[in-house]
């Protein structure tokens, strides 16, 4: 690879790390960038290398947030389900018809965007509920499903974690972001294990991308802590618009 290609990929990984740390969706930047700048790679190699970088970035963001957000480590009880779900998703990734998945995700994203826009108090006012056995069971099913989605398709996993956790626990975006990062580490790791065992990870390239991904993630996590739930809400709306636009373009015009 040329110096220009490597520089562009490193910069893209930094931006992806920042977005992932705040709300998720960094894969929509880095994954297409890898495919464009390194067209000789297979889709599986691009996915695997992207996951390798993302594991490091999300881990860095998770550690930063967990140190400052109370009870963030509560997400660990769901982490094994997230990991298993992502591994399952990675196994079935090759059989997923993206032309079917994209319209579904576009509709979900638009619905999420309107919900956040029309409910300005959602994720800002914290009224934590007491988690019952039924709530934990429902949460486990949701986490497993999102894990499978991340392994098989991926875009916006962090966003879906944040929205689901906020609705489930009636907490704020800050707490949900911390939980989401921990669960996202698990999904990235689960998918990476599968891609790694299949030989679909370019480890040297992935290492370089991981370094800049960590830098972006640390910047993003600190901005979340410094600016609060209102900042997360604004970024969620921006990411929803960008993701919906990108997926719509891929579906109908690419």
Short account of what is shown:
With about 250 residues, the protein is an all-alpha fold. The chain is about 80% helix and about 0% strand. It is globular and about 50 Å long.
Beta strand count: 0
Average pLDDT, rounded to a whole number, is 87
Q: Work out the count of structural domains.
A: 1
Number of helices: 9
What proportion of the residues form beta strands (DSSP E)?
under 5%
Secondary-structure element pattern, one letter each: HHHHHHHHH
Pfam family, one: TauE
Membrane topology: Multi-pass membrane protein
Transmembrane segments: 51-69, 75-93, 100-118, 138-165, 231-249
Subcellular location: Cell membrane
Question: What does the model show?
Answer:
With 254 residues, the protein is mainly α. It has helices at 3-22, 27-37, 43-66, 79-92, 98-118, 133-152, 157-169, 173-197, 203-252.
Features:
single chain; 254 residues; mainly alpha; TM_pro_TauE-like; TSUP; membrane; transmembrane helix
Write the layout of secondary structure elements.
Layout: H1 3-22, H2 27-37, H3 43-66, H4 79-92, H5 98-118, H6 133-152, H7 157-169, H8 173-197, H9 203-252
Helix pairs in contact: 1-2, 1-3, 1-9, 2-3, 3-8, 3-9, 4-6, 4-8, 5-9, 6-7, 6-8, 7-8
Transmembrane segments: 51-69, 75-93, 100-118, 138-165, 231-249
Family: Belongs to the 4-toluene sulfonate uptake permease (TSUP) (TC 2.A.102) family.
Keywords: Cell membrane, Membrane, Transmembrane, Transmembrane helix, Transport
């Amino acid at each position: 690879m040329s110096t220009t290609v490597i520089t562009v990929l490193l910069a893209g990984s930094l931006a992806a790390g920042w977005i992932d740390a705040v709300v998720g969706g960094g894969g929509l930047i880095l994954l297409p960038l890898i495919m464009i700048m390194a067209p000789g790679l297979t889709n599986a190699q691009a996915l695997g290398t992207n996951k390798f970088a993302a594991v490091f970035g999300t881990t860095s963001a998770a550690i930063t947030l967990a140190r400052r957000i109370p009870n963030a480590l509560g997400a660990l009880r769901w982490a094994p389900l997230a990991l298993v779900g992502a591994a399952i998703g990675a196994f079935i990734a090759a059989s997923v018809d993206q032309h079917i998945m994209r319209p579904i995700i576009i509709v979900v994203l638009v619905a999420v965007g309107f919900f956040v826009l029309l409910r300005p108090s959602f994720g800002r006012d914290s009224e934590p509920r007491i988690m019952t056995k039924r709530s934990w069971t429902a949460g486990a099913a949701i986490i497993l499903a999102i894990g499978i989605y991340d392994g098989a398709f991926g875009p916006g996993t962090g966003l879906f974690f944040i929205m689901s956790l906020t609705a489930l626990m009636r907490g704020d975006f800050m707490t949900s972001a911390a939980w989401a990062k921990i669960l996202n580490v698990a999904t990235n790791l689960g998918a990476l294990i599968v891609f790694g065992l299949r030989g679909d990870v370019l480890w040297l390239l992935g290492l370089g991308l991981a370094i800049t991904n960590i830098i972006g993630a640390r910047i993003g996590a600190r901005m979340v802590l410094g600016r609060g739930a209102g900042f997360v809400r604004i970024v969620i709306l921006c990411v929803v618009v960008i993701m919906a636009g990108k997926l719509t373009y891929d579906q109908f015009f690419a």
